[in-house]
Structures are given as C-alpha cells and as structure tokens.
From TrEMBL:
Protein name as it appears in the record: GTP cyclohydrolase 1 type 2 homolog
PANTHER family (UniProt xref): GTP CYCLOHYDROLASE 1 TYPE 2 HOMOLOG (PTHR13799:SF14), NGG1 INTERACTING FACTOR 3 (PTHR13799)
Keyword Cell inner membrane listed: no
NCBIfam families linked to this entry: YbgI_SA1388
Family as reported in the entry's similarity comment: Belongs to the GTP cyclohydrolase I type 2/NIF3 family.
SUPFAM superfamilies (UniProt xref): NIF3 (NGG1p interacting factor 3)-like (SSF102705)
Quaternary structure and partners: Homohexamer.
InterPro entries (alphabetical): DUF34/NIF3 (IPR002678), DUF34/NIF3_sf (IPR036069)
Organism: Lapidilactobacillus mulanensis
Keyword annotations: Metal-binding
Domain of life: Bacteria
The UniProt record lists the keyword Metal-binding: yes
Length: 270
C-alpha cells in the first residue's frame, strides 16, 4: 500500500509539529499535489538543482528537506534562471517538495538532539525556550549536555571536525587549552542566542555561521564557540529515514527511502 503526499505530511507533523516552527519560517509543502501517490522519497538538507537532477534520475515522488525550497516568493518563472528552472523541473517531473525546518530544530528527538548525540554529549537537556503562543509543552531551540570527561577547547574542536566530517571549522576562543565539559548545541545559524547558552551554563557553544561582530561579543563574554558550518545539519539524511521507515511500517506502507548522495555545502577550505 502506498501513501499520499498528505499522509506523509501527517506523519511528519508527528515528528516535527508545524506549530513549533519560528514565525515566518516557510515550512510544509512547497511544491506538489497533496493527493499524489508516493512510491519513493529522497531526504536531503538542501534542494538545489543538482539534488533535483538526482531526484529525477531516481524517479523520486517526494523530496523531504530540512531547508525550505523557497524562503521568498519567486518573482517569476524564467527557465533562463537556474533557480526558477529548478522549480519548473520539479513540477514537470511531478516531484513534490516538503520542508521541516525550525519545527524539526525545536522538537525533542530532532535536529539539535541528533547533533548533540553526534559529539557524545550526555545528560542532555533543552535550553533557550521559544514563545509560541501556546502554554504547553514549552518549545526549546537548543540542547545542552556534558562531555563524558573534561577536555581542552582545542581538543574538543578537533574532535568536532572529525565527527562532523568537515575539512575545517572556525574556533572562537581566548582559552584554547582550558578544560571544558558543559557544551551547548544550536544547529544552523544560532550565534545570536549565545547569551542564552551562557545563562544555561555552557562553556562552549556549537553553532554555524557565526558573524564577525557576534564572535567578538562571545569572546568578550568568555564563551568559546565552535562553528563547523551550517552543513552539519545534513545529519538529517542519516537520522530521519529510519524514523520515517518505522512509522511507515506501522501503517503497512511500502515506500522506498533514499538519502541524497550529494554534498550541498557551498564552501570549501583551500
């Protein structure tokens, strides 16, 4: 038995409730037909032209992405523009696109828990509550926990580079040899929440895309920061498929699942 796009959206709402998303975050169905039958799903961090080509070749019916396909309305659909042509290729090939972004970040067992587990944090707790207009449960953007044993800031940064599989990362610290154990994690661009990490007791914050002036403020406040880049959220390609597959089996749905094999990180170190 094959589900529809809408039925899979309903499952995703159990995993990453849409009400958890930040205001104005364009989550949900981006392109597609809710009644379309789904045989094959592709899980990806980003939806880029090369990912769409991958999906077309694999005869994918539905792409599930972390980063929304369209953050802003398309001003036109002109095939001369690679971005617009990508939208047209999706429509022509009957490929639906669904995004779970900050609602996946701000849910128990979601993105930040996956990243915290990747670096071996223990006794993890959520921090940085986000007001959502409903009383319960409280929604948090961030996880904080302990390393199994203290280690220096630099040693831990080098370990993060290895565990996240990145060619380089940015380390912001005045004390590279200081022994630390309490670590906060905010996936994506979480630098603006560094005061909340300090308030929660973090000695180190792992987040991406830290701005130059924000990094100076972090240093002034005695916080060390490890920035391995935004692309570490590609962990979705490893973590989400087995969660979905387990839910599909409960419904006796037969859906082929694959993860994008492409690296969509726009940056490289030279």
């Amino acid at each position: 038995m094959q589900p529809t796009v809408q039925q899979i959206i309903d499952v995703m709402a159990e995993i990453a409730p849409p009400q958890n998303a930040e205001p104005h975050d364009p989550i949900g169905l981006q392109i597609g037909d809710r009644q379309q039958i789904v045989h094959r799903i592709l899980v990806t961090l980003d939806v880029r032209p090369e990912v769409v080509a991958e999906a077309i070749k694999a005869k994918i019916d539905l792409i599930i992405a972390h980063h929304p396909l369209m953050f802003r309305p398309a001003p036109h659909l002109d095939a001369a523009d690679p971005q617009q042509r990508m939208y047209m290729d999706l429509i022509k090939n009957n490929i639906s696109v669904f995004a779970a972004h900050t609602n996946l970040d701000e849910t128990t067992g979601g993105m930040n828990d996956w990243l915290a587990d990747q670096v071996g944090l223990q006794k993890c707790q959520p921090f940085n509550p986000r007001p959502k207009g409903f009383a319960s449960p409280l929604i948090y953007l961030g996880v904080i926990g302990n390393l199994p044993q203290p280690q220096s800031v630099r040693d831990f940064a080098e370990k993060c580079q290895q565990l996240f599989g990145v060619n380089g990362l940015r380390l912001t610290t005045h004390e590279p040899n200081k022994l630390i154990q309490r670590v906060a994690v905010i996936g994506g661009d979480g630098g603006k929440f560094y005061p909340e990490a300090i308030q929660a007791g973090a000695e180190v914050l792992i987040t991406g895309d830290v701005y130059y002036h924000t990094a100076h403020d972090m240093l002034a406040n005695g916080l060390s920061v490890i920035d391995p880049g935004h692309h570490i959220e590609s962990i979705i390609k490893e973590k989400l498929p087995p969660i979905l597959q387990a839910k599909f089996e409960q419904q006796h749905w037969q859906v082929d699942m694959m993860s994008s094999q492409l690296n969509t990180d726009p940056f490289e170190f030279i």
